[in-house]
Amino acid sequence: MKRTVVAVALMSIGLSAAQAQEVVVKLGGAAPLTGNQSHLGKDLENGTRLAIEEANAKGVTIGGKKVKFELVGEDDQADPRTGTTVAQRLVDAGVKGVIGHLNSGTSIPASRIYDQAGIPQVSPASTNPKLTLQNFSGVFRTIANDVQQGTGLGKYATGALGAKRVAIIDDRTAYGQGLADETAKAVKESGGEVVAREFTTDKATDFNAILTKIRATNPEVVFYGGMDAQAGPMVRQMKQLGITAKFLTGDGGCSPEMIKLAGDGMSSSAYCSMPGLPLEKMPGGADFRERYKKRFNADVQVYAPYAYDAAMAIITAMQKADSVEPSKYLPELKKSNFPGVIGNVSFDANGDIKEGAVTIYNFKDGAWVPL
Amino acid sequence: METLIQQFINGLVIGSVYALIALGYTMVYGILGLINFAHGDVLMVGALVALQTMLFLMGMAPGMSPLVMLAIALAVAMVICMLLGFTMERLAYRRLRNAPRLAPLITAIGVSFLLQTLAMIIWGRNYHTFPQLLSTTPLQPIPGVFVTPVQIAIVVVSALLMVGLLLLVNRTRIGRAMRATAENHRVASLMGVDTNAVIALTFVIGAALAAVAGVMFASNYGIAHYGMGFMPGLKAFTAAVLGGIGNLGGAMLGGVVLGLVESFGAGYIEHLTFGFLNSSYQDIFAFIILGLVLIFRPTGLLGERVSDRA
Amino acid sequence: MNELVAAVPWLGKRNPTAARWLIILVAIAAPFIAWQFGRSWVRILDFALLYMMLALGLNLVVGFAGLLDLGYIAFYAVGAYTFAFLASPHFDVHLPFWVILPLGAAFAALAGVMLGFPVLRLRGDYLAIVTLGFGEIVRIFMLNLNYPVNITNGPQGINMIDPINLFGWDLSRNIRIGEDFTIHSLFLYYYFFLAAVVASIIFIQRLQISRIGRAWAAMRDDELAAKAIGINTRDMKLLAFALGATFGGVAGALFGAFQGFVSPESFSLMESIAVLTMVVFGGMGNLAGAVVGAFVLALLPELLRDVAVPLQQTLFGHVLLDPEVLRMLLLSLAMILMMLLRPAGMIPARARYCHDHHLSHHLNNTPKREAAK
Lengths: 371, 310, 373
Known about the structure:
Chain A is of the alpha/beta class. Chain A has helices at residues 2-20, 38-58, 80-92, 104-117, 146-158, 174-189, 208-215, 228-240, 256-262, 285-296, 304-321, 326-334, and strands at residues 22-31, 60-62, 65-75, 98-100, 121-123, 139-141, 165-170, 193-199, 221-225, 246-249, 270-275, 338-339, 344-345, 358-364, 367-370.
């Protein structure tokens, strides 16, 4: 018994001797890892993990010392209050930078805690414009925001779809309303008319009343800002009410789930949008897909490449500043400019990614196909 | 004009579902004076059990005719829900029959959330696609007005079940026992009515109706998930109060009226309030009606005065 | 306080003075203990104190006056939004904390009276469902009043709310003493919230043994009899709603300032139910019950999250029940089992208006006499 204690003690001394040459730098990852968005949260965390492991394998030296990055993953349950608790935990753990959160609703309250602690946050998935408009110097994102997406959607409706009359519905969530408002603005600016502005909730199943009202205004395109669980039944009810207008929705409805729930309501007149390029069109996409598959034995969902580039942006900035201290590397993070998986990574004055792309998808042969 | 008729149809369909759920509330309330909060969640269990049965049948006997499959699924859902109703009454409510008045109500809220949580554990949080066994291709009885066969079935089935229930309560021995128990438990039991059995039966019938409502609701919208019963449940309760709680005819009337108010409300509120309010307020109509009825006409449209009963 | 003291297991009955000091010591030391497990636990304690205030306020309405309110979170929302309107860049108004707090309380009280008036005649379950509707109506208005005039900023919520500032002392800043000793802002909030909870407890305790408290108890136990002995039940009900709402409003204002961000999704029906469960779990009509119920049910889900998720991972290799499901399961089972097995709650309320020694004397004697008959 005593001998084992001695052995353990010796081993721990040996370990600490090895660690002395290597500085461990913790990076935080926050996303919903449980609940109904856990697949997206895991995707985000895996993207971050891949970046960290590759950087470690390559070997990074900062300030003359070899650096080993370590991921501290936390589950924010997509809930604002849990988000702030989790943010506090990451700060406690002494992370030097955070990659997360997934939902705008959690990112925004959490960003205040990171800001107070002086820790930079790069979100690979929160698209609400307000996130980067809070005058926090350390908040960035690698994904196009809802202004960029809404503008793209509005212009697509009036341009490629040639609609003059557009009806707009939102689900009264921060995400749905934000996207719908930006789309409405873009429709008006590009010469279209918003003939109806209707509302539902993110728990509703019956849209007959508002769709009937919309039908009376004769729109050519119906836009819905919300999630797939409502978009699916909505498309079905449009068909049942004999509405022939084209259906357009944002990234919330751009999922296989939406196709399943819409059932026979789906047709080639359904469109949706996603921020960013489709994986196969990203400069580093094909290669990334293989590396990801090899490491996690799973397919990329959506956010992994953005999380990968977010982590890379922080690591690259640390290398350039030759310091892992947030106050030192933050100026370099602002000046980021490197070719990432998703394209060139550089931020504007607010911290939004420059030239954030938006891709429109069309329903074809049972799946969403990028146009 | 087409829009007006269409909104009427929308309201009638959703109102029929509310009416069917409201019957369960009103029966239990009439007999026990208890708002069975969990009643809406029985609807959810019915829909999800039917879904599970259909998926099973599709795997086992792919060639089965859709109508037969629907009938089997409905039967299974009804049986499971009846068992559930019986269990709820036996385990939770019966022991609290003489407890202070807040106790059964708080328990009922607890049961409602427990059912939702259990459903979340069993079926997950995602929305499920409910198989379309009846055609949902719209017909056009009047040009510009669309109705699907499922919607017609909902209205017809609801009406038939209500008539059936009225006959049961007013024309049979069991019905007489139910009415007697509602009037006065103790006297009824002195007259030889097994009140415990009658109360259990009331829960079982209510649960069966909720199961039917659940299957109709899910077939109409093509989806089912763990939280689908809560809101319709609350609204159906409103419908029961609106019609006069404890009164079966009132529950039906209340359901249909509420459906119509919601449908026309969402459709026309913007014009009526000069753009100040809009369809985002659709969900508060039920609560406002509830408040107004209880304050100004506590007897409901057809019922007796009950707001003091608790 | 006496109820809390009596609730301390073992020590409470034997040595009340020691128990009292133990409670005070624990309340003061709690954040230091939590700190050992990480700052996030201090934050969780801060939230637990807010829930305590909510539970105390709801207990006033449900436990003391016997009015089941399922829309209590609406008052919390009113308080939080009042603070957000008057101390954020949203309207570009930044009033001092001491001005907003009474305003928040007053608006919440007003909302309480507004709810109280129409429902005066309703009792029991009808009251419950109308108040539930009221809670939803308030939430839906907060969600939608960004059009045609932007008042609440709709679903986006209001961000960048000013922190609590006591006469120029900003609670969100750490205090630095010397070179390497700092008092973290979470501690400042903790003690400030603690002071608020203690003040509430003292106030409610005085209230309980006052004429008003006794009138409520009479009304709760038998409204008709209460009326017959000359209690103005209308005024008493309105007062219960208004006072209960005031506590909700104050807690809401503190919440808004502490979190710095309010949005309608924080004020869902589920939150009302959660606060109700805390009251029921602890014991209706009992101060100690509300405090203990809030404390246990605010901390337990967080503990579960720390314990249950890793445990499941090692046992089954993946997470079967996620923390949110566990929380729901816990709350619903707490409600059902408490009502069935221990309807008076963890800490049953004793008679509310007489001193302990009278009470115990009374309790010890009556059953015997009855049995003798």
